[in-house]
Specification:
Layout (H helix, E strand, L loop, with lengths): L2 H20 L6 E3 L7 E9 L16 E2 L4 E6 L4 E6 L5 E5 L3 E7 L12 E5 L4 E3 L2 E4 L4
Parallel strand pairs: 1-6, 2-9, 2-10
Antiparallel strand pairs: 2-3, 2-6, 4-5, 4-7, 7-8
Length: about 140
C-alpha cells in the first residue's frame, strides 16, 4: 500500500467514525450524582398534532415525542445540578440524590410553547416521573 492509499484509508476511517458519532442523535440520559435507580425521568411530548381533536381520540392524533429537548434540573436553592436531553422517543432521565428539585424545560425550536417548570421530590430508591408537554401551536 502506498502512502497515498494509506492516507486515504485513514481519512475514510476517520470520516466513518465521525459520521457514526454524529448520527447517534441526542442521548436520553444525563447523570448528576446519585444511584441509577434514584432520580427524575419522564417523557417530553408535543401536541396537539391534529387541528381537530375528536372524542373518542384518534390514535393518529396522539402527542408526538420531542427529541432533543433540553431539560435543566435545579436544586432547592435554584442552582443547576444536571441537564438532560430527551432521546428520539422523548424519554429522559437524570440520576439524582434524594431531595427537592425544579424541572425546567427549555424552548425547542419548531414548537410554539415550552413545557412549564415543574417541582419534583426524589425519594431514595425511586424514580420520580415528570411528564413534559410542549405546545405545537396547532389549533
Amino acid at each position: 500500500m502506498t502512502t497515498r492509499q494509506s492516507l486515504r484509508a485513514s481519512l475514510f476511517g476517520l470520516a466513518m467514525a465521525l459520521a457514526t458519532v454524529a448520527c447517534t442523535g441526542p442521548t436520553a440520559t444525563a447523570t448528576a450524582t446519585g444511584s441509577p435507580d434514584t432520580g427524575i425521568g419522564g417523557v417530553a411530548t408535543a401536541g396537539p398534532v391534529c387541528p381537530v381533536e375528536k372524542n373518542p381520540p384518534d390514535p393518529r392524533c396522539a402527542p408526538r415525542p420531542v427529541a432533543g429537548a433540553t431539560i435543566v434540573i435545579r436544586n432547592a436553592s435554584g442552582a443547576q445540578v444536571a441537564v438532560a436531553i430527551s432521546g428520539a422517543d422523548g424519554h429522559y432521565f437524570v440520576s439524582l440524590p434524594p431531595g427537592d428539585y425544579e424541572v425546567d424545560p427549555q424552548p425547542v425550536q419548531g414548537l410554539l410553547g415550552t413545557a412549564g417548570k415543574r417541582q419534583a421530590t426524589v425519594a431514595a430508591g425511586a424514580i420520580t416521573d415528570v411528564a413534559l408537554e410542549y405546545d405545537t401551536g396547532i389549533r
